[in-house]
C-alpha cells in the first residue's frame, strides 16, 4: 500500500494596496494631480491597478497575486482556488492534496471513524482514505480474522468473545480461583466472568439448544432442551414464539399457522385453519360444514355413504346420475390402481378435536367409515 | 316445479340467507329465476343438476359471491363478465358442455378451486390468461381433450391439486416440477409414455400425497417401477440414467400412441 500523504501550502494570500504619497513614480510618469496607487513598493495609475481577469479595480483594495498577475478575490477563486472534495467550498489557506483531490484540513477524514487525517497520515484502502486502526481492522475482517480488543493486533487463531468483543484467549485466565489456567477459545462467559470449558460445565448452566451458548436470563424448556427466549422459534418461519402457544411435532416446534399448514388442519374448501372438529377424508381435512357432496353440496356425516372421484366426495345419489361411460372409466382406473397397490387402504374419516391438537397428540380415535366404489359390471 | 323454485328463493330472501340452493329444479335458463340476479348479498349459489345452457352476463351483479356451483348442467356458454366476480373462491363447472372458455377467463382475483371436469376443453380453447390465476389451490381438468399441458402451468405456484385424468395428453411439460405445493397429481387415462425427470422433484408420493398414473402406455422402465410402487418410480425419475432415457425418448420422437377411448358418446358432446 502506497503512503500517499502530501501537505501543500497554498502561497497566495490577500495583499492590500495603499494609496501612495508622492515618492516612487515609474514608467509612463504621473501627472502631479493624478491619484497614485502604491502596491508593495510599486506605484500604479488608479486605472492600471486592476484585476488581470475582469480589469476592474479591486474592492477594498484587496487582491491576490499568482504568477506575477493580480486578481480580485472572486476571479482568483474561480481560476485557481481549489475546491474541498467534502464541503465543495473554495479553500483559502492550507490545502490538503490527497486521494487525487483537495480538502480543507479539517475535512480530510477517515471514511469509517471520521478522525481528521491531515496530521496523522492515512492509508488508501479500496479507494477510501482510512486511519491506520480502521485500515488494520478492515484488512483483518477481509481475511476473516478479528482484531484483539485489548492489544489491537490481529488474532490468527480462534478469538475468544467476551462482552461481544474478540480477544486473544491468552489475555485471560479462568475465573475459578481453584483453576486459574490460561483460557483458550472454548472458554465460556457467565455473568461477565470467563471460565474454562471444564469449570463451566461443572457449574450446570443450561445451554441453548439453538446457539449452544449458556442461557442466563429466562430459560424456555421445550422439546427436552433449554432455549434462549429469542432462540425458541417456529421451525418453518423462524419467528420466536416469545411465550405464545406453540405446537410440537417430531422433535420440532411450529407456530399455529405453520403447524396447521404443514400437518393438515387447513380446511380444503375455505383454506382456513380448522379450530374445532376436523374431518379427515380423501387425503384432505375439512371443516364439518364444508364436508359436503362435491356435486350437490348436501351435507354429509360419518354415516353418509359417498364415492370418490378425483379424491373428492360424491354422494351416492349424484354418482348414479353421472354418465355411465364416466362411471365405467372411473371403475376401470380404480381396478388398475388396485392391481398396482393391492394393499391401498380404504378412505376413512377421522374426527379429531382441536383440543387434542393443542396437546399435539393426534389420538387415533378414528371412526372408520366406508368409501365404496361401484362394483364393476 | 316452478312454484317450488320460487318458494325456495322467497324463503332465502325472507330469512336473509347468504346462500341459495336450487339443486335439481329442472331450471333451463336464468330467465326462469330473474330475481336471483338481484340477490346481491348472497355468497353461495348452488344450481347443480339443472338444464341451464347459458350463464348471462348479469351473473357479475352478484358481487359478494364466493362459491358458484353449476355442476351437471348443459352449459355451452359463459359470459366474459364472470371473471369480474371479485370474491369468487370456488367455481364448479364440472359435467357441462363447454367447448371453450370466454376471453379473459383467468382474471379472477381470488379463485382458489376451479372444477372444469368433464367438458370439451383443450389447450387451444383456454383463455390466454388462464394460467395467471396464481391463487388457484386446486384445478380439476379431468375428462377433457387436452393433448398438451401448456408450460405456463408452472406459474400456478400455489397449486396443491392438479387433475388431468382421462385427457389425450401425449406429454407433460418440465415446468410441472415448479409446483412446489403440489400434493395431488392425477394423470391416469392419458397417452403418456414418459414423464419429465422434473416430476421427480415433486412432493407427491407419501401417506398424505396422491399420484395416480394408471392406464397410460408407459415405457417399460416406468411401467416396471410402477408395479413395485410410486416411491420406486420417483427414485427412477431422479436417477441420472433416466435423464438420458428421457432425452433419447424425446429426441427419437417416436409414434404417439392413439387415443384410447372413444369420446363421441360423452354427454358433454350432446347437442340437444
UniProtKB/TrEMBL annotation, chain A:
CDD domains: LIM1_PINCH, LIM2_PINCH, LIM3_PINCH, LIM4_PINCH. GO terms for biological process: cell-cell adhesion; cell-cell junction organization; positive regulation of integrin-mediated signaling pathway; positive regulation of substrate adhesion-dependent cell spreading. The keyword Ion transport does not apply. InterPro entries: LIMS1/2-like_LIM1, PINCH-1-4-like, PINCH-1/2-like, Znf_LIM. Its main location: other. The keyword Metal-binding applies. Signal peptide: none annotated. It comes from the Eukaryota. GO terms for cellular component: cell-cell junction; cytoplasm; focal adhesion. PROSITE patterns: LIM_DOMAIN_1 (PS00478), LIM_DOMAIN_2 (PS50023). SMART domains: LIM. It holds the Pfam family LIM. Keywords: Cell junction, LIM domain, Metal-binding, Repeat, Zinc. This is LIM domain-containing protein.
UniProtKB/TrEMBL annotation, chain B:
GO terms for cellular component: cytoplasm. This is Ras suppressor protein 1. InterPro entries: Leu-rich_rpt, Leu-rich_rpt_typical-subtyp, LRR_dom_sf, LRR_domain-containing, LRR_R13L4/SHOC2-like. The keyword Repeat applies. PANTHER family: PTHR48051, RAS SUPPRESSOR PROTEIN 1 (PTHR48051:SF1). Residues 106-198 form the Disease resistance R13L4/SHOC-2-like LRR domain. Keywords: Leucine-rich repeat, Repeat.
